């Protein structure tokens, strides 16, 4: 099968890899209908995270089940399925409490690499959620978004306790930030402030439900959020970047008693204890338990209540994965979809 492999920062190649096959009796093998490049794939691409030799890439996926292991009961060949970027058994105490990425048996799909024609999914029964039928082609990007960026933006909003009547600020205008705006709208927020200085992303944020756009960053951005929220700060802030600046911007944009949902993968973030102590801000976040939200998200997409697939503004054949990475790195594309 063909698959994308990163050799070094800036060096992504599509090459022949060993075919995905069943390893454990709880596995499934999928033929991917679409894959994509994630903002988090850009960390190693930019050399901010190390690349440990030739590394298969990708962790978002939708596709048709080709094979299941002997212990798989709820998933069958021929079904169209969506899975989370963490495989998990979905039966242990941690999974049942809604924190599937922390399942003691979890497997991060990035270690398997889903930017490929085929993929092995561990814990198929726990990880995969079938759609009601074979989806129409125009729905596939939305379902693919549910696999990570929508689920992550949704978790950011839930972790920030977004709800009716609340003022929400979203730090970060990548696909996750934009879909956190969509989630905030769906969860009934009254005011949604998107922090973005890129015109095409501002437009999409508005389309997804943003009521205000703040272009300033850092403390100037914080001041703008306070001005827009009666001087108090937002009730809920979603942090969708993962840098020191974005994290502090998020914490300082929240009002006392407010909540920050942080879903940007933290890189060299350290929090000042005294400021945190006096802020009275709740912090909750981490790798999103996408599996918790998948049935509801698939249902909303299936009913065409939401179209998170709009974050894909570039579609390329898998063979051109290198160009997909380049376009996202240079911010020419919000998110690139790859068709095997
Ligand atoms: Zn578990």
UniProtKB/TrEMBL annotation:
SUPFAM superfamilies: GroES-like, NAD(P)-binding Rossmann-fold domains. Keywords: Metal-binding, Oxidoreductase, Zinc. Residues 25-130 form the Alcohol dehydrogenase-like N-terminal domain. The keyword GTP-binding does not apply. InterPro entries: ADH-like_C, ADH-like_N, ADH_Zn_CS, GroES-like_sf, NAD(P)-bd_dom_sf. The keyword Oxidoreductase applies. Its cofactor is Zn(2+). Pfam families: ADH_N, ADH_zinc_N. Residues 175-285 form the Alcohol dehydrogenase-like C-terminal domain. PANTHER family: DEHYDROGENASE, ZINC-CONTAINING, PUTATIVE (AFU_ORTHOLOGUE AFUA_2G02810)-RELATED, ZINC-TYPE ALCOHOL DEHYDROGENASE-LIKE. Belongs to the zinc-containing alcohol dehydrogenase family. This is Zinc-dependent alcohol dehydrogenase family protein. The lineage of its organism: Bacteria, Bacillati, Actinomycetota, Actinomycetes, Pseudonocardiales.
């Amino acid at each position: 099968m063909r698959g994308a492999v990163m050799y070094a920062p800036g060096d992504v190649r599509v090459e022949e890899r060993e075919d995905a096959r069943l390893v454990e009796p709880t596995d499934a093998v999928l033929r991917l209908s679409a894959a994509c490049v994630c903002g988090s794939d850009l960390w190693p691409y930019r050399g901010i995270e190390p690349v440990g030799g030739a590394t298969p890439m990708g962790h978002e996926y939708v596709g048709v089940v080709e094979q299941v292991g002997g212990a798989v009961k709820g998933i069958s060949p021929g079904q169209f399925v969506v899975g989370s970027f963490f495989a998990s058994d979905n039966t242990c105490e941690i999974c049942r409490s809604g924190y599937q990425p922390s399942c003691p048996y979890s497997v991060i799909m990035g270690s398997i690499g889903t930017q490929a024609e085929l993929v092995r999914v561990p814990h198929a029964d726990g990880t995969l959620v079938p759609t009601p039928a074979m989806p129409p082609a125009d729905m596939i990007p939305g379902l693919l978004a549910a696999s990570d960026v929508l689920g992550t933006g949704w978790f950011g909003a839930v972790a920030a306790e977004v709800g009716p009547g609340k003022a929400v600020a979203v730090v970060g205008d990548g696909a996750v930030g934009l879909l956190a705006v969509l989630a905030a709208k769906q969860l009934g927020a009254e005011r949604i402030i998107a922090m973005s200085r890129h015109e095409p992303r501002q437009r999409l944020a508005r389309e997804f439900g943003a009521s205000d756009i703040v272009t300033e960053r850092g403390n100037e951005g914080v001041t703008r959020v306070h001005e827009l929220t009666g001087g108090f700060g937002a009730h809920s802030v979603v942090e969708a970047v993962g840098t020191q600046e974005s994290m502090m911007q998020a914490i300082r944009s929240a009002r006392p008693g407010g909540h920050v949902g942080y879903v940007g993968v933290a890189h060299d973030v350290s929090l000042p204890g005294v400021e945190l102590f006096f802020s009275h801000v709740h912090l909750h976040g981490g790798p999103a338990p996408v599996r918790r939200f998948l049935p509801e998200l698939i249902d909303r997409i299936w009913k065409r209540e939401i179209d998170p697939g709009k974050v894909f503004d570039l579609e390329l054949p898998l063979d051109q994965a290198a160009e997909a990475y380049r376009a996202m790195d240079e911010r020419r594309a919000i998110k690139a979809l790859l068709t095997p």
